[in-house]
Amino acid sequence: MYRRGVSSYRRGVSSRTRKLVIGGAAAALLGSALAVGTGMGQAAEQGNAGASSGNINALVPALGFSPGDPNATADRVGPTGVNVPGRCPPTQAQVNAQVALKNANLPSGTDLESRIQRFEKTLSAIQDLKCPASSTTLLGRLKSLTALRGDANRDDVLRGLGLNETPADKAAGAGSGDAAAGGATGNAGAGSGNINALVPALGFSPGDPNATADRVGPTGVNVPGRCPPTQAQVNAQVALKNANLPSGTDLESRIQRFEKTLSAIQDLKCPASSTTLLGRLKSLTALRGNPNRDNILRNLGLNETPAG
Q1: Organism's domain of life (predicted)?
Q2: pLDDT tens-place string over residues 279-296
């Protein structure tokens, strides 16, 4: 009986020991699983945070127009010459955040479709933020990209462009598409840099976009009180409509720059008489029959005219 009792005791101890060992192993495995799970959760949280910062600022194209006043109740003239809500567009930072929120994977490639998708998703974010596409220059620049779909030389064209630069930007000498990383404002997207030097000055102070009455223009005739547009708006419109704005100092290049600027003024629903451009253009066209025109031009600045 004694031996049977000892044997039973030993079996009981062995059984309890095995249970303890198995229980300890299970606890260890559970602890490891929890640790891995917690680590994955933290990594996921950090990954999601990264989706709305860092690279996104470089990937979202610049809006191409100064942000609106969030408290504005009246419309203002947008970069393409049509009225847009005065609160539009949103800030670049707001748009970047919205793009990040809606897109887990924003294409980062330099191929044509990746570029097009970035513009399309940015335009979608603009609309999510209750602003029209016309409060930016994105649509015109996107069109210059989609036009490349049927271009046999598109790869060569793209190789010469920055990450978010478009043919419209390149033609204007802008190179501004990548400026989104710095929160570009103004008319960067429509073409800054060279375009600002190539478009002649309007020669008169900008109108009040909210004006309803006329005012006396620079030539002494009444013009709408909202005219002329700002120089930045005109520069953007010229860039939008002209893939290749002449940059030469020869007579015809000068004349073309004035003519294209006057056309942009009209696109923006203002008369030529709200600027001094027409009189200065006439002083250039008068040189066409002047045998000394080359000598006269040599003494003039890029957009300077005999009239000033």
Answers
A1: Bacteria
A2: 999 999 999 999 999 999
